[in-house]
Amino acid sequence: MNRCLNRPFSVAVALSALGATLLLSSLPAEAQRFRRRTTLAAVQAAAESGDAQAQLDLGNRYDTGQGVEQDFAEAAAWYRRSAEQGHADAQFNLGAMYDTGEGVLQDFAEAAVWYRQAAEQGHADAQFNLGFKYATGEGVAEDDAEAVEWYRQAAEQGHASAQHSLGYKYDSGEGVAQDDAEAFAWYRRAAEQGHADAQFSLGSLYANGEGVPQDDAEAVEWYRRAAEQGNAYAQSNLGLMYAEGRGVDRDDVTAYMWLNLAAAGLTGAQRDLAVNTRVRVASQMSRSDLGEAQRLAREWTPTVPDDTRRR
């Protein structure tokens, strides 16, 4: 359950001309060109006159160092002025700064306050972060039922991380009645957006026949998608599937490669399992096959997720 701390949200154009706020990374090309033509002086003047959208934009510029020297304290100050006027994106950004301690003293309780204000306006990222706070008891009293509620609100807006976290709550029965079918449904929605943890979780449900008919081939498919993004648990399970010929033809070279990658990213008992299986597989391999597997592991690079929207 990775929390979402990415910021900043900003505007496509200055002075709230569009009446909508978008993720900076997803702005249309024309909007990005318009924004670059907007002078810092114009944004500064609008922000100082009290325009909440311009205040957010100015905070964003200080946050990212766009056209000004990067200054987190100045960014936080402008986010605060915008947030105090009720701007949900500024509230989220200010909450994220309190979460990380950038520009302000780290304060999880204060982060939760600002996340809540944005979340109550329907801000999906803030809803997810607030859910995480309740799930972990960070800055608020731990409350799994409350976490489920905020995860659900974000998940229903298509937030992949919230969908995965909501699936996990159904999977574990924390804050909601345990329900493998519901877990499967939410994992799948997140997995189809390219969420690696959800892809791993979905693969595990298929491998174990929980919430869905047992299907090794389908498990391999989802483990592969997560493994290719660098999920070490999925790499380990995919290696095991290749080593045992479950859902895929047995292939010691491929098994060793995935187990080798998994061992580098795991700790404790999970790493021990990957290492021990790798040793067993290696004992059955020729010298040339072992060398090929090691080469493949060295040269492997992760893929980008299917869904590259910033969260």
Characterize the structure shown:
This protein is mainly α. The protein folds into three domains: 1-106, Serine Threonine Protein Phosphatase 5, Tetratricopeptide repeat (Alpha Horseshoe), CATH 1.25.40.10; 114-193, Serine Threonine Protein Phosphatase 5, Tetratricopeptide repeat (Alpha Horseshoe); 195-311, Tetratricopeptide repeat domain (Serine Threonine Protein Phosphatase 5, Tetratricopeptide repeat). It is 64% helix and 1% strand. It has helices at 29-37, 40-48, 52-64, 72-83, 88-100, 108-119, 124-136, 144-155, 160-172, 180-191, 196-208, 216-228, 232-244, 252-265, 268-282, 287-299; strands spanning 9-10, 22-23. A two-stranded antiparallel ribbon has the order 1-2. The protein is elongated, with a radius of gyration of 23 Å.
CATH superfamily of the largest domain: Tetratricopeptide repeat domain
Strand order within the widest beta sheet: 1-2
Tally the beta strands.
2
In the CATH hierarchy, what is the class of the largest domain? Mainly Alpha
Number of separate helices: 16
Helix content: 55-70%
What is the string of helix and strand elements?
A: EEHHHHHHHHHHHHHHHH
CATH fold topology of the largest domain: Serine Threonine Protein Phosphatase 5, Tetratricopeptide repeat
What structural category arises from helix and sheet content? mainly alpha
Largest sheet: 2 strands, antiparallel
**Outline type:** elongated
Nearest-integer average pLDDT:
89
Percentage of residues in DSSP E strands: under 5%
Span between N and C termini? 13 Å
Q: Which regions are unreliable across 5 or more consecutive residues at pLDDT < 50?
A: 10-27, 307-311
Measured on Cα atoms, how large is the radius of gyration? 23 Å
